[in-house]
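Morning. Coffee machine broken again, so started the prediction first thing and wrote up yesterday's gels while waiting. Chain of 383 residues, entered below exactly as on the submission form.
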Amino acid sequence: MFRKSELTKEEKKELKRKKKEARIKAKQKRGKRKKTDDNYYIIGGRFGDRDERTKGGIRTLYFRRFTFLLLALGIMMLVYQYAEMIDYKTNNSTPIGTELTFLKSEAPLTISDIWTDKKREVTVVKFKYSDKARQLLSTEGKNYNLHFLHTTKHKPKIEMKYGVLGTEGDGYLFIKGKLDKRAYQIYMANTLNMNYGDDKASPNISTIQKKSMEEMLSSVSEDTMNESGVITAIQSKFKNKEKEHKFDNINFRLNAYSDNTKVFDGTFLTDDNEIDYGKVIKQTSTVNVVKKIAKAMETLQQERQSYTVSLEEYQNRLKRDKKNSDAKENIEKINLRIEKLDTTLDALRKEKERYEKSEFRKEDFGNMQENFEYFDLQKGGYN
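Came back before lunch.
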């Protein structure tokens, strides 16, 4: 059998020495690398060395980064606010209290109220006529043309009517039919030229002037309306030119689901599915008038009560001193004031009863305009 070869003592010593040298070299190499890393961290470091020029460069770098961050945030906020404004213009009704001015006659109408019923089956817009408006505009609903602007995908099936309550009352726009949860633009054009003092209406916008009206309505976009939802760019496009005077119209935005739309907890329809005009007037006008009268009566009653207390005081003074001329004079004045208050209270009481018992019908709106035109904004024409 063969025996395993054995190293001599000298060979073992040599092998041990070589291993030891190898370990020392490896250790030295590691120490050198660590020393280099430490030197870099101390001399250079994350924020630079101790040299003032380096520190100034670092400050400039961080300042620029901070400035760019602020600029980016500012741009994002501007974009967000612009989107919010567009969303508001697109999805909310024209604010109550907005004054709308007809282009040709310059007659002002004010949106005084917007109502809808619980199921959004009837929506009502109420207009306040100023004295100037009554002089320049017709109080017959038939003398106004109505235009309902919509998109191809959102064309609600509705009926639209306009009438003025008596000759001194407000104007009412009635829309029967469920509207989508979005805003629609509505144009109302006066066709009666009151400057000539006759009842001859100008040519019908939907026939003779229809082509020009189409051209104007086709230019409607979100960018042409102001924050109140009134299209203004088109109105000023032909300013001081003959074209501007072709139409005497106003426009406004309507959303039955808008925050400023008041909701009646009931229905504005009769059992026959017709508009209940009496209920509309009662809810939109009569209830508020009755509340105002009741509040005025309460104030006058309190005033009368205070006069009664003063009257008793002066009467007691006169009983103690029959010659008290001051008390006599004040008693006479107070009695006159109480008498005037009683007269006013009696008149208010009768007025309140009249409103509470009043019933309004369709006939009270005179000759209403019961026709209207759909206008498709995407197709740019009537349908």
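Residues 122 and 176 are 5 Å apart (CA to CA). Going to sketch it on the whiteboard this afternoon.
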